[in-house]
Amino acid sequence: MKKVLYVAAFVAALAVGAGVVLSTGASAAPASTFVLLDGSRKSTEDLKGRVTLVNFWATSCVTCVAEMPQIAATHEKYKAQGYNTLAVAMSYDPPSYVVNFAESRKLPFEVAIDNTGAVAQAWGDVKLTPTTYLVNKRGEIVKRYVGEPDFAELHKLIEKLLAEA
Prior knowledge:
Glutaredoxin, two-stranded antiparallel sheet, 5 helices, globular, disordered N terminus, TlpA disulfide reductase family protein, Thioredoxin-like_sf, Redoxin, oxidoreductase activity, Thioredoxin_ResA/DsbE_sf
């Protein structure tokens, strides 16, 4: 009986330890350079100090186009509190389509074009769109969404991250 109790206590301790490791599951955002529509560049290092949503999308992606108004509204809601959005168009998206989309929809955040696919590769070989990452102020990825996020849940997480030092 004592052996069973010791084993149970050991397993419980492992589970608690694993829970701590899993709950801190943030990993550093990969080093990459984003080329913005205006030709300027932004690096992963530039994301530090703000909570940033990095959204991989394409103009040909129905879900991406459908979620873009909510991404824009989220950006507007939190930008004054230290929140940023960076939309990264996939390499197969014609740059003229991306520019037209961003201008015609008056996107209120930065848009980059991943001409070579290197950024998508660095961020976990992104192939499915939309794929969205939420990055904390320390430059760590805290959440990855494939498909449209649950925006109510996303807003709660953004608020929690904005409140962190």
